Target: Alanine racemase domain-containing protein
Amino acid sequence: MQTAAKTIPPSQSIHDLVTPSLILDRGRLTRNIARLADHARQLGVVLRPHMKTAKSIDVARRVFPDGPGPITVSTLAEAGYFASHGYRDMIYAVGLSPASARRALEICWRTGAEIKLLLDTVEQADALAEVRETTGVIPSVLIELDVDDHRGGLKPDDPKLIEVAARVVAAGANLVGVLAHAGESYGLNTPEALVAAAESERVATVRAAEILRAHGYACPIVSLGSTPTAHFAQNLDGVTELRAGVYMFFDLVQHGVGVCNKDDIAISVLASVIGAKPEKGWILVDAGWMALSRDRGTASQRVDQGYGVVCDEQGRVLEDVIVSQASQEHGILSIRPGSDKTMPDLPVGTRVRILPNHACAMAAQHAFYSVVDGESAGIEARWDRIRGW
Amino acid sequence: MQTAAKTIPPSQSIHDLVTPSLILDRGRLTRNIARLADHARQLGVVLRPHMKTAKSIDVARRVFPDGPGPITVSTLAEAGYFASHGYRDMIYAVGLSPASARRALEICWRTGAEIKLLLDTVEQADALAEVRETTGVIPSVLIELDVDDHRGGLKPDDPKLIEVAARVVAAGANLVGVLAHAGESYGLNTPEALVAAAESERVATVRAAEILRAHGYACPIVSLGSTPTAHFAQNLDGVTELRAGVYMFFDLVQHGVGVCNKDDIAISVLASVIGAKPEKGWILVDAGWMALSRDRGTASQRVDQGYGVVCDEQGRVLEDVIVSQASQEHGILSIRPGSDKTMPDLPVGTRVRILPNHACAMAAQHAFYSVVDGESAGIEARWDRIRGW
Model:
């Protein structure tokens, strides 16, 4: 059911917003959602969006206009929240501890949702027996794969893969598949490298599924994804589902990787000018790391965007103006080193928008989105976010 | 009035907490509060604590056991929150925009609090006339000083100091003093340099007050401070009040500067082990940057603490174990480069605590504190935090 949460009187505009405020551009959001949905459809896989970026039922409703679909979550607070809104098919994409497994199954018991759990060790598998007994719910489990030395997970050829599968079954849980995340793709920046990373993620993940099947495990779910590889995958044979999260909003890191343009970035922080140091080329604004996050993900990319790219109040990029420094509630705007641009005239009280290095991190600093569309100043709605664990 | 908010049944222990959770050690908090209060008393100045770190009325009650005292705030959300709890004397330590000044005075009108505003330009001063007229409240104003090229503010000898003072008075506002923040002291690391920075902050601030007085402005408030200079100041002649915020909790950055010991750090994030990569020397935990923050403030210090120092569940430091990498909900523990230690045995489900690089940033990622005392596992209380702007 499509309902606009907390519709705001039409007279409210971004000029009335307290600064700093988090702005979400509905047109860009809609375009980004459609782009990956189309791509997944063409590749013949289910899209299981990761809700860790948006953390909002109102955003989820734009992703699933016809009703709840399969999702990925990063916390059990998200799982409980989306379950309360009718979402039934979730993967909790963080390796389980005995305590988190128990809590997840309690949510399943209470809401009727199925929260699929993730693990990669025999210790985690063994712990499921007691969790099953305590909660009376049979856990559904995916084995986490390591396809690019990024974080956790087992290599497809690791003999532990079969050992873990056996222990999952021995614990009385359902082994429903394998899951990979090509997290190292964030460090790439050419289409060729991204296409290759997507194919390498696919090959390793499908191989793990085949090994499991050769040992008698059905492995119905073959799940992979990261925003860069999801967009650059050309073939997903053998894969059943694709996961991505930041693609709904995009950000400067994804722009640096080459997955989006700056004008695809759907969130920004509205800030007010509160001073200047003309002798240093500085403009001071009332958005620091509390509003922008401390994320400096572009620092290791070809173009370092400081704490974010600065736009005018309508969202048009002010060329080569970045947030060069940030303290808790102060940002310092300056011209990017090496640029021949001069700082535009931004008197005290002027409002600007700042694009995120990392959308997940910027959004996490805010309790809600003020939804706009394009360059219109009208606020269409306020969409709440959830937080915590 | 001293009341424990939301007292938790005594049976609740940190073993029952969801991970990640933010832990506050009451004993350490009490000791840190007493240390700076004693120092301010010896120096003969009023302490005006900055609430931007704790953002909690329960912490404020430990700072002011006899009832509300003078405070500093970083957002107008904090101002409104503390006003609703009886705090009357506040400095909003972020330069004003016309919109924020209006909102601050509306809070004053509604609550009876006095929120002193900060500015350093004639444009901000001129804007006060209309704000005064709209709200019917006479603004109280401090001029922001720049004592170490850190951020905003005027140099004491800048002729604009007198010009801005004149325009504040012309706008019908009360000029109540000057304010400095020696933010560059965070980059120091010897007692000599810190003592010198504190004295330099004092000299510049007092000089600005004297210049204003020579021009006929009374300048009753002479306010300065930063956690490092506040602790190392040896003489505050001419100063009326001292400000600091992070000192209540302390953190690894302050430890690197030399202001505290590791066992003074009062907050930490409780996390659970969810896996390991023995071949890489990694232990994986369920606390990433969402729980720890993206702050890497120790990266530029002599000892880089990664995303934080790891302790056992009781808060005892595991020597040379740090969080070396962090993604949204995953942290990777490893042994500090160059150390001859080996990783302790931390099986899946083990709980650890992680000390913050930057207490303001870590606390900001959480909605509440679970309050403990020392190595006892009992949770004494849950103290809520406020967020937003």
The first strand of chain B starts at residue 21 and ends at 25. Chain B touches chain A through 58 residues (CB under 8 Å). The longest helix of chain B spans residues 191-214.
